[in-house]
Every structure is written in C-alpha cells, then in structure tokens.
Amino acid sequence: MRLTEEERSILEGKEGNAAKKSMEILVALGEIYGAERLIPVTSVQISGVSYANLGDAGLEFLAELARDGRVRVKTTLNPAGMDMENWRALGIDEKFAEKQIKVIEAFADMEVATTCTCTPYLIGNKPNFGEHIAWGESSAVTYANSVLGARTNKEGGPSAIASALTGKTAEYGLHLDENRQAQFVVEVNARIDSPMLFGALGYVAGKLAKGRIPLIRGIGKATVEELKSLSASIVTYGAAPIFHIEGITPDKTLTPDEKVTVKQKEIDEAIADMNDTDDVDFIFIGCPHCSMDEMETLAELLKGKNVKKELWIGVARPIKKMADEKGYSKVIEESGAKFACDTCHVVAPLKGRFKALATNSAKGIYYGRGKNGFKTAFRPLADCIKLAVEE
Ligand code: F3S
C-alpha cells in the first residue's frame, strides 16, 4: 500500500500508541483486501458496544486504546447492552451494568459521542452522498450505502475504532464504484407499503441475493421508516450491504440481465415463516431504533391503554428527548411501556428471560430466534401493540 508521510508517521508511533495500533489494523486490512491506499472518512459508527459481546478482553482492549487515543472524526456508537440511564427498570443486573458503564467510559475518554443507536442518520451522524465513512452496524451500513449514497464497508468493531482514531479507512470493497453495481433485478409484484412489509421484502430479496447486490423495481415510494426496515432485513437475510431501488435510491447502477419476480405469494410465505406463535410475553418495537414519526404513532396507539406484557421501545436518546418535548413519551410511559434507549432486544442480555417475542422487524425476528431462542410473532406495529395490551 502507498502511505502518505502523515500515515507513515502514525504507523511509526509518532502520534501515540492508540493511533499506531489503529494504523496497523487499517494497513493489515488494506493489504488483505488489495487496497492501494488509505482514504479519509468523514464519519464513524462503532458496533460491538455491548459488554455481552465484548467481555473482559474487549473491555481491556478499549481501555488500552483510551489511554492516548482520541477520535479525529464524528463518531457515534451502536446500541449497548442496556439503557445507560434506565437499566434497572429493564431488569439488567448490577454486575453487567458496572462493566457496561466502563465500556462507555472508555469510549467517552476517546471523545466518541456516546449516543448508542443503530440509526445514527436520524440523530445528526448523517453523511452526504459520495462521502466515505466507516460504519459498523449492518442495517446502518446498508442504509448509508443504499439510501444516502455514502460509501462504507461493514466494519468490525476494531476496524471502525481504528478509522475513528486515524480518520482513515482502506480503499476497497464498497468504497469503489465498480463494486457497488447491481448484480440482479428483483421485480416486485406485491403490495409493499409498511415497514413490516418492507421487512418481509428484505427477507425474500436477501435470501435470493446470496451475498449479491439487488436492483429492486416496482416500488413506487418509500418512507424513511420503510427504508430503514428494508435495510435491516435485506442484509440480515443474505444480501450485500447495499441495494438499489429504481426511482428511489441515489446511486447510478448498471441494469443486470438476471431478473427474479417477487409475487404476493412469496411475501405471504415469508410472513408465515417468521410467525410461530400468538402467545408472546415480550414485545419489542424499534428495530432499527424508532424515528420521531414512529414515536408519534406509538403515542397514538398507546393513549389511554394499559400494557399487560413487557413492551420495550428501542430509540436513540436524542429522539426520546424530542418525544419528551412533544408529550409522546409521557403517553407511552403512562401505558406501562418501557423505553429502551441506547439498547435493543438483541444486544441486551435477555436469554432465558422471555419465551416469545412479537415485533414488526424482520431483522428482530432473525436475532430473536437465533440469539435468544425466542418463539416469534411477526406483526404490523398496531397488531404488536394489541398483543401488548391483551390479557
Ligand atoms: Fe438496531 Fe438492535 Fe435491530 S442494533 S437494527 S435494534 S437488532
């Protein structure tokens, strides 16, 4: 790889140990993937923040970097293992909380903005078209590449931190235009008009993709909430972390010859596949984390209701604060629902606490089953709330 003078000096340790280690990680990755050079990034999002994933070894690694490492670009975090303020109400144990707090403190020492969310693009970490970034969370990476037209690979925890501490990434993969072209067409011939249905489309298209990039046609319009749902599910179920939708996403792409049609039948089968129970004891909304519009809808659905089961709302803390100001949070909390800011049902240590999960997120279903062994109910938002208020 060709390194600039500044990059070489970081590699020689002239700008501290954390920057040196970071440069070593980036150069090693660049060499593995055949990158010719490093390029500047404007934004970083770090995943692998939950102590449940990091363990003590991960915590030590972070503490060592925090001794002299300071971020050089705007950097936010993916959800942690608990709500950093309200963890007791969510039943998180004291020992876990102690360790999780240390993890966040290490990031704070590195001057990371310690907002923990998988929707950084809703809270001010929103890159523009064409910007090179280094993000970690798969749904956010897919949203950034596809919907915003920013350029990022799906970074692991250490490589995202390395980018934050140097302001660089290796130029390979989705940073290069030739690797962002669609590889097959998905012609949609079905009604796709809610976040849940976009999630189901992601399930079908992701399985068809087998690691490739789809060009989706036949979708007239899509909201932010629908696109974040599709971004989360399509990559979870097997596509590359980028898709194109004709008339909606901003990247130019070639039109491949191979075409697959998705009909209503396949969408219905996907929904049936993600449902194996009605008898749920846990409902999670906000995968990916809720937007302001979703907070408003939740307040409308929960107004005057009495929640009988554990209902968590996953949301970035800045969005929750805006919802406080609008009065939505009060209505939601009065119903008995709980906010899970900074965290979610997948990264929180929930195994064994619940039997069956209801959610409107296809990604949430995948990890609810795979990571926590839950039975699952995949329903539209209003039906999830109905399940939460039923005896
Ligand atoms: Fe976000 Fe957790 Fe879903 S990180 S995308 S809410 S699994």
Keywords:
391 residues; binds FE3-S4 cluster; 14% strand; four-stranded parallel β-sheet; alpha/beta
Question: Which helices and strands appear, and what pairs or packs with what?
Answer:
Layout: H1 5-11, H2 17-32, E1 38-40, E2 43-46, H3 51-68, E3 74-77, H4 94-109, E4 134-135, H5 138-148, H6 157-166, E5 168-170, E6 184-189, H7 195-209, E7 214-217, H8 224-236, E8 244-245, E9 259-263, H9 264-273, E10 282-285, H10 292-302, E11 310-315, H11 317-326, H12 328-334, E12 338-341, E13 356-359, H13 362-370, E14 375-378, H14 381-389
Parallel strand pairs: 2-3, 2-4, 6-7, 6-9, 7-8, 10-11, 10-13, 11-12, 13-14
Antiparallel strand pairs: 1-5
The site of FE3-S4 cluster has 16 residues, from helix 13.
Give the strand content: 5-15%
What's the overall geometry? globular
Instruction: Tell me the major beta sheet.
Output: 5 strands, parallel
Q: How many DSSP-defined strands?
A: 14
What class, by secondary structure content? alpha/beta
Tally the helices: 14
State the end-to-end distance.
63 Å
What order do the SSEs take from the amino end to the carboxyl end, as H and E?
HHEEHEHEHHEEHEHEEHEHEHHEEHEH
Low-confidence stretches: none
Compounds present? FE3-S4 cluster
The average pLDDT is 97
Protein architecture, described:
- The chain has 391 residues and is an alpha/beta fold.
- It has 14 helices and 14 strands.
- The strands form four sheets. It has a five-stranded parallel sheet with strand order 12-11-10-13-14, with helices on both faces. Strands 8-7-6-9 form a four-stranded parallel sheet.
- Helix 2 (17-32) packs across helix 3 (51-68), helix 2 packs across helix 6 (157-166) and helix 7 packs across helix 9 (264-273).
- The longest helix is centred in the first third of the chain and has 18 residues, at 51-68.
- 53% of the residues are buried.
- The mean pLDDT is 97.
- The structure holds FE3-S4 cluster.
- FE3-S4 cluster binds next to helix 13.
